[in-house]
Design brief:
alpha/beta; 9-stranded mixed β-sheet; 6-stranded antiparallel β-sheet
């Protein structure tokens, strides 16, 4: 696929994935359409060769089991995460102030809060009905977190602390006692009368857009980390049917809040799936351990390009630039898991794809974030490499990527999964 085609496909994926639940479901639907068989964790799984996918809440794992697989066949795993920072709606969400109807929300993850103000927001997530069935929902634009006019705070441009409780509640209507809409009644009307519980979030409604003098950039929400999820999804669909390894695509939820959940990288989901696969191959504990040590996990999560207005925030000799290719993340303190052997594997994948890559390290005075890489590596003992596409404005409601970097990430991930 060309850079333009990849950017267009990714943009559509973002539009269809306002929450982690949607991202996992859309990925599953695309995999099933490509011939993967959806499995339930409540059923016995087949042991024969084939392509399979399983969803757990906001996480999804897919793999191709080759016909020649043995108990010691290694895995090649692309790991990513489906969630992004934002706001979750609290229980008893109705707030009424000064004639306004508002929603009580809780900050989810490390959101760049100032970017969420004065945006047209929708409500999206999952609903559980009285019969136990689960539905995904998404409204049109219904909410807005309002800024305070500069006339009422003359020092706002000199720096203002955002109160995460008082300042971030969105308006959704007029006070129900003044003849407007009662927010709880409205919400239940939109979710359906059978709804008994829900997990709902705010999401930006602005569609991704190509910008720049030569339209070389894509501006979008949730690039951290749907860029990696989309690349892994396309990579596993195109992975060889019968190779000498088992290609795996694993997109976890809850990375932005620490990953320590049943559907997070710190939970048992990937270990459960790989265990099922190895059990079907008749692997002993020793054979399973040998397969893990011969495997590779490519932890793909967005990284940082040099910020043109604050270049001092970046390492003086490793300075990723837009269009220079995806990043190889390295950390002496193992916040990223890449070491020399992993660098060689990544370099070979990029060479096979015909793309360049760029090293990324944090400046010594800023520790930077971490990824699912150290978490999954610690749990499984599988050698791990940390990579990702470079962005501007990470954790903003609207991030920025160079479309050539997005395409290069796709090529490198596909080459890695192909082996």
């Amino acid at each position: 696929m060309t850079s333009d085609a990849i950017a267009s496909s990714f943009a559509q994926y973002v539009i269809e994935s306002p929450t982690a639940f949607h991202a996992a479901a859309v990925a599953r639907d695309q995999l099933v359409a490509a011939g993967f068989t959806e499995l339930s964790e409540l059923d016995a799984w087949p042991t024969e060769a084939g392509a399979y996918v399983v969803v757990r809440d906001g996480a999804v794992i897919a793999w191709r089991l080759p016909s020649g697989a043995t108990p010691t066949t290694p895995f090649r795993i692309l790991g990513a995460h489906t969630d992004s920072p934002g706001f979750r709606i609290k229980p008893n969400p109705a707030v009424r102030v000064g004639g306004w109807e508002q929603l009580n929300v809780e900050v989810y993850g490390g959101a760049l809060l100032s970017t969420w103000f004065d945006r047209d927001l929708r409500i999206a997530g999952r609903v559980v009905d009285a019969d136990g069935s689960v539905r995904l929902v998404s409204t049109d634009a219904v909410a807005r977190i309002p800024n305070l006019a500069i006339h009422l705070d003359r020092g706002v441009n000199d720096g203002k602390e955002i109160d995460r409780q008082r300042h971030t509640l969105p308006v959704v209507g007029t006070d129900g006692t003044a003849g407007g809409t009662d927010v709880l009644a409205w919400l239940r009307g939109r979710l359906g009368e059978d709804a008994v519980s829900w997990d709902l979030f705010l999401a930006d409604t602005q569609a991704p857009a190509r910008i720049g003098i030569d339209r070389e950039f894509l501006a979008s929400g949730r690039m951290d980390n749907l860029t990696s999820v989309h690349a892994g999804l396309r990579g596993i669909i195109d992975a060889p049917v019968d190779g000498d390894h088992v290609p795996v695509f694993a997109a976890f939820d809850h990375e932005e809040i620490g990953s320590s959940t049943p559907s997070g990288a710190g939970g048992p989901f990937l270990e459960d799936v790989l265990g099922h696969v190895q059990e079907g191959l008749g692997a002993t504990r020793s054979e399973a351990a040998r397969a893990f040590r011969a495997s590779w996990l490519l932890s793909s999560d967005a990284g940082h390009l040099v910020h043109p207005n604050q270049p001092e925030k970046h390492d003086p000799t490793n300075r990723p630039r837009p269009g220079g290719g995806p990043l190889l993340k390295i950390s002496a303190n193992q916040r990223y898991m890449t070491e020399a052997k992993g660098e060689a594997v990544w370099s070979a994948a990029c060479d096979a794809a015909g793309v360049s890559w760029q090293p990324f390290v944090n400046v010594n005075t800023i520790p930077g974030g971490s990824t699912i890489g150290p978490i999954a590596a610690t749990r499984l003992g599988i050698p791990t490499i940390d990579i990702g596409v470079g962005l501007l404005s990470m954790h903003s409601v609207r991030e920025l990527v160079h479309v050539d970097d997005l395409a290069a990430l796709h090529g490198a991930v596909a080459a890695f999964l192909a082996g």
